[in-house]
Amino acid sequence: MSLDEDELLAGALGVAASRHLKKNVLEVDLTLAMPPAAAAARARQILGELGRVLDSSGEGGAGGWQVAGVVAAGVGNLNPAVVTVTIKAAGDGSTLVVRGAAKEGLIKQRAGESAARRVAEALA
Question: Which pLDDT belongs to residue 1?
Answer without folding.
Answer: 42
